[in-house]
Amino acid sequence: MNTDSAERSTLTLAGRPLSYVDFGGPGRPLIALHGHMSEGMSYADLASRLAPHWRVIAPDQRGHGASGRAADYSRQGYLADVEALMDHLGLARAALLGHSLGAINAYQFAARHPERVSALVNAEGCAELGMDGTNPLAFVLDLPHGTAPSREEFVTQLGPFAQYFTSAVRERPDGTWGLHFHPGDMYDSEEQVHGDHWADWTGSSCPALLIRGTKGGVLSAEQAERMIAGRPGARLVELETDHFVYADDPAGFADAVRGFLADIA
Fold first, then answer.
1. N or C: which terminus of the chain carries fewer CB neighbours within 10 A?
2. How many domains does the chain have?
3. What predicted TM-score, i.e. pTM, was given to this entire model?
4. How many alpha carbons fall within 13 Å on the CB side of residue 175?
């Protein structure tokens, strides 16, 4: 994986930094939106596989990575960030790709701004979720909310969660160490992404690809079939992975995305 061409930049929105990684190249723009507790650099492998035909630009969405915490994690807030990033980059139109939270942000943005989205890739983003009132991210409230003087000390504080979140530990500007997200923010964000979003999923007509993990993904086969049936021209690709399709089968994920984008280009 070559990330030498990746350039990190920041724009300021109402005093809050929004950081993004531009993987560069001469290709057409593809805005890639990550899921909860992830960050823009999670698309480094995809960017290298899509180059040089596609230029991947991946923000650290609000409250994640190098971006600042936000006053809220509403649907409107996330979508406003995408619009501001595209305006900042001078992109009147781009393809959008998202995983989980990022996938819902992508198709909701397309529904509200169809003239700005040329194609849509939805990886494990449900059209309805959380209808039973439970929050699958409730466990994050048990993660350390503060910081530690060293990386090693913070990893120790993670306890049994260390095997899952060590890669999310970052040094802060004051020299302390902690997670690149705040657990409470992630819980709140998950709460606010829940709902019936069928009207948004079907609210744009650009070409769309739906990618589902068949081994423990959050998108059920039944809902995926309904999503394809409800959006004319959409196609479905299933990968033998869990929810993290782009990480567990990076080659298969990139092949699906590349093939779809090549067909619509």
1. N
2. 1
3. 0.97
4. 1
Would you place residue 1 in the very low, low, confident or very high pLDDT band (cuts 50, 70, 90)? very low
| Residue owning tokens 């196609």 | 235
Is 167 a domain residue? no
- DSSP per-residue string spanning the chain: ---TT-EEEEEEETTEEEEEEE---SSEEEEEE--TT--GGGGHHHHHHHTTTEEEEEE--TTSTTSPP-S---HHHHHHHHHHHHHHHT-SSEEEEEETHHHHHHHHHHHH-GGGEEEEEEES--SEE-TTS--TTGGGGGS--S-BSSHHHHHHHHGGGHHHHGGGEEE-TTS-EEESS-HHHHHHHHHHH-EE-HHHHTS--S-EEEEEETTT-SS-HHHHHHHHHHSTT-EEEEESS-S-HHHHSHHHHHHHHHHHHHHH-
Could you tell me the residue range of the domain that residue 99 belongs to? 7-128+195-264
Query: What CATH number does residue 211 fall under?
Result: 3.40.50.1820
Q: What is the CA radius of gyration of the chain?
A: 18
Closest to 131 (Cα-Cα) out of 213, 218, 216: 218
Is position 148 within any domain?
no
Q: What is the pLDDT of residues 64-80, one digit of tens each?
A: 999 999 999 999 999 99
Among 32, 21, 22, 18, smallest CA distance to 96 is for 32
For residue 63, being part of any structural domain is answered with yes
